Known about the structure:
The complex is a heterodimer.
Chain A: E1 18-26, E2 44-46, H1 57-62, E3 65-68, E4 73-76, H2 80-83, E5 93-100, H3 110-126, H4 151-155, E6 169-174, E7 189-193, H5 207-216, E8 234-239, E9 246-248, H6 249-261, E10 266-269, H7 280-291, E11 295-299, E12 324-329, E13 352-355, E14 359-363, E15 368-372, H8 375-393, H9 397-406, H10 415-418
Parallel strand pairs in A: 2-3, 6-8, 6-10, 7-8, 10-11, 11-12, 12-13
Antiparallel strand pairs in A: 1-4, 1-5, 3-4, 14-15
Helix pairs in contact in A: 5-8, 6-7, 8-9
Chain B: E1 5-12, H1 20-29, E2 33-38, E3 43-49, H2 53-57, E4 62-67, E5 70-72
Antiparallel strand pairs in B: 1-3, 1-4, 2-3
Family (chain A): Belongs to the peptidase S8 family.
GO molecular function (chain A): serine-type endopeptidase activity
Keywords (chain A): Hydrolase, Protease, Serine protease
Amino acid sequence: MIDPPAARRPRRLPGVSTTGRQVVVFADPDGEAVDWSAAGITDVADSRDFTSGRVPAQALRQAGATVFARLGIAVVDAAPDQVSALRSARRPVLSVSPELVHRVLPEDPSAYVRGYRDGVTDLAGRLGSSGPGEGTAPPPPLFEDTPAATWGVQAVQATTSPFTGRGIRVAVLDTGLDLAHPDFAGRPVTAESFVTGVDSAQDGHGHGTHCTGTACGPRVPPAGPRYGVASEAEVFAGKVLSDEGSGDDGGILAGIDWAVANGCAVISMSLGADVAEAHPPYSAAGRRALQQGSLIVAAAGNNADRENGDPGFVGAPANSVEIMAVGALTSALTTAWFSARSLPTPGGEVDLAAPGVDVLSTWPMPTRYETISGTSMATPHVAGLAALWAEATGRRGLELWATLTQASRRLGEPSVDVGSGLALAPQEGAGTA
Amino acid sequence: MGSPLARFSVTVDDGHLADLDAVARALRDSGMQVDRVLGTLGLITGQAPADARSTLLAVEGVTSVDEQLRVQLPPPDAPVQ
């Protein structure tokens, strides 16, 4: 039974009126019958007793209690103390709240004035003058690297999450992994090469090792700050790009096929081609992966040059409807200058954003660590977070996708650049509701 | 002489996912060198003459034939990856 203490209740705004009735939420819909007589209520209207389950307004006004069976919710015409007698009944009560009176939202007469002011401010900005409140200096960083953790894993709140990705398989399809890297010593790693003529998934470039570190690096690295999100996820390193950093559909699709067949809940792809049209094979692969419980997360692309007025566009495969596109943020949580903007076509939108500027992660030995930037670095942050949510909630596929976007922190940046905002890690208690 | 070979990705429709091998055979008969049959995704990749796209598209169970895209990362020392 959950009875939030008064102190935790949200402050009620002045002017909110109530009807005197109580709204009761039961633990699970359609469970055991409720003993209304315990609360002294006899006149009960149940939605199951009416044709097509619709309770007429007349009945709702007159009944002592109206039960919406499909929702597990009842509206009760009784005082709160009377309703509390239900708490000792067999069917658990989750909450009792006063019924609120809702009204059509009033028109806002100040909107016109605000619109006019914004128009003037915008015009002043375009004319190059420094109007009121307008600064040319970049906003200050909100996060910074510390001896304990990179700014990125702090920003996505991985450092305060109790979840580690344990039991979740994460595939990183890239240039492979430095299989002898000390930061992955003792971790279960399944590695496979899909590059023609290359037998080992050993990374001879560095990009794949960097991305794998961000997605799955250890909670406490043997040296330096924490940089990885899903520290206990099972790593599937698929080499689909050569040591020269190149690859084509054949190897990439084979890598996706391998990851899905192995039950990877998350597939991270920090790769792309600068084409504005969705590529049908990636759309089919994304759709069939989702159906089998695998979420593909891909880099939006680095083809923007925002300082020179070019916002770029989301490339393939991230511009497929069925594949999640990730943009890059600075440590001030602004859009990175290179991070691609949404296309107006379906699937061409940036779905989420994550840290992608000055990101420290693993690099092939003996270098060990490197700090680089790109939507390639933002993508594995989201992949690691997806693994944490998969562990916390048990959700997969489209449900996992929805959870990630729902749980993201909205930003002041345009949605065409950052989608639903900054992806965040599940915190204590997530997934138990 | 025939046109030079190009790399293609062939998408198989939902109704033929159980018959991927048969679709792959038909693609071979239509001149495609099949590299991979991806059973989990319902995709077939390989090479064929660049002008063979419409011939491959006519194979029963095929819903899309697309020239493969090529990905190229910047060099390892590039600041933006």
